[in-house]
Amino acid sequence: xxxxxxxxxxxxxxxxxxxxxxxxxxxxxxxxxxxxxxxxxxxxxxxxxxxxxxxxxxxxxxxxxxxxxxxxxxxxxxxxxxxxxxxxxxxxxxxxxxxxxxxxxxxxxxxxxxxxxxxxxxxxxxxxxxxxxxxxxxxxxxxxxxxxxxxxxxxxxxxxxxxxxxxxxxxxxxxxxxxxxxxxxxxxxxxxxxxxxxxxxxxxxxxxxxxxxxxxxxxxxxxxxxxxxxxxxxxxxxxxxxxxxxxxxxxxxxxxxxxxxxxxxxxxxxxxxxxxxxxxxxxxxxxxxxxxxxxxxxxxxxxxxxxxxxxxxxxxxxxxxxxxxxxxxxxxxxxxxxxxxxxxxxxxxxxxxxxxxxxxxxxxxxxxxxxxxxxxxxxxxxxxxxxxxxxxxxxxxxxxxxxxxxxxxxxxxxxxxxxxxxxxxxxxxxxxxxxxxxxxxxxxxxxxxxxxxxxxxxxxxxxxxxxxxxxxxxxxxxxxxxxxxxxxxxxxxxxxxxx
Length: 499
What we know:
Elements: H1 8-21, H2 33-46, H3 51-69, H4 73-78, H5 85-113, H6 119-137, H7 162-186, H8 189-209, E1 216-217, E2 222-228, H9 233-236, H10 242-253, E3 263-265, H11 279-291, E4 295-304, E5 307-314, E6 321-323, H12 337-340, E7 364-366, E8 369-375, H13 382-385, E9 394-399, H14 409-424, E10 428-432, E11 437-440, E12 446-450, E13 456-462, E14 465-466, H15 470-474, H16 477-498
Helix pairs in contact: 1-2, 1-3, 2-7, 3-5, 5-6, 6-7, 6-16, 7-8, 7-14
């Protein structure tokens, strides 16, 4: 395959199209094989590329990958941020172009460093570079670890390795398998055997861990009512709608069967104002829930002095509060304000200058069960959610995915929650304003769902669990260390042979 000569226009087209295909490996389609296929094409095209050509091919791949994968940024800015269409399109394009830097540099560095290596060594090198780029993407500018390659395996053959290696480890194995497939097709018999082993071993390891319980049932099950009111985003923060919104949530909460419920969960900003502004209005409802022994968790805003927090509050009982720590750029704060402050004049986002919570990230005690809370985007960061372990027996995420419009993003967000449940072997309940709301078991399987753009409630019984997975113990350090060693050895080897 390395000797195959194709016209430049066809090579460029294949690189771009293969990037376009990759997002279909994520929710809602979840065609996990698309991730392998797209990476096989890219890696095959890079075999005979010069560094300059590799930079171009990686950029084209990234343009397709992120152009489709994060197109929902446009809806967030235009439909709900009130940015005029041209500005929203420009900002979305700029965002996509920034994202293309990662696959472009990965391809460039690989071509520069691959000399003097065997085909299998180069496969490991490309996988290591790809994962380091993903790790970097998850850190720079507050991080954007969206549609990582590893998420393609949430329902794929490598899913059961998530509690051991995490989503970045899955990314490493997917990319490595794709590269080994290229080596298998173009290599000698010996190379084919080695490539086959590289592809098959992770699958066998996943099968071996399928029935391993990394956590254990702990205590009595909780009966949880999930409430999704499906209030349109453009109406959510309307002052005139506040009373009707609260009426919607309280009436849905008190539907038949509430006498059997231990905990009710409302989504992020279900109370679209400050908690202290609605205490009087909601006092009778809260007293009624307390009298029935029902806890209610709701998203809203907490004022502490001059600071405002996106928060989740236990409305009755101990009135515990969790303040969101990882804020969304542009949505909850303005990054590089001294440069981008002009953009705030054209984008109108309610409560867009929030403070970040601080201090130990501890779970909330709900009827004797330690519940780890995250808000919206926070469940995308597995490394940060490790702070909730081992104490948390149950994970709850509240979100307002209405910002994404009718795009793939709400489904992609649910997929990330499924990965967190897998990584930590904990049940995870996520409740959103307009969907998708879902109850996820400790193996990452959805056991109940309220669909997108649907109003409704869902009652689920959730079994708390305890114990630590290998990933919960180590985080991303093993995959980072292994990837760094692979890259450093390749660079050192290249330097020795070129001197």
